[in-house]
Request: fold
Amino acid sequence: MTVEIRESDTVSPDARDQVETVLTAHAEEAGHPFTNAPCILEAWDGDTFAGALHAEIGSHWVFVKLLGIAPDYRQAGLGSRLLRRIEDIARNKGKTGIWLDTYSFQAPDFYPRHGFTEIGRIEDYPPGQSRIFFQKRL
Reply:
């Protein structure tokens, strides 16, 4: 068998769909089907965007993919409100917990204040900084 490996800086929808099909089939065979569903929480002040949280709700855990607050709304408790809201959603759906990652130059002290525990980090990602992984069991 001769398999050619090609490099690309974009993922074609066809290639992405094929990868998802292969991974989904394997997960189902192992008894752990992928059941992720998006959950977007948006915060608006009238017509002004204040922040948002984008999560993926899986079969047992919720992954907070993005949490961002517009500069004029930082330090006002909005991030905490969004985080509490996704926790309520996770609890109501009977999930085990929530996990996420952030960077040392963002707000890594924010998550432990909300009951999250650091479970790992990658140093020098980006150079001179760390990527930090957190979880919270519900």
Notes: The chain has one domain: 35-137. The domain at 35-137 is CATH 3.40.630.30 (Aminopeptidase).
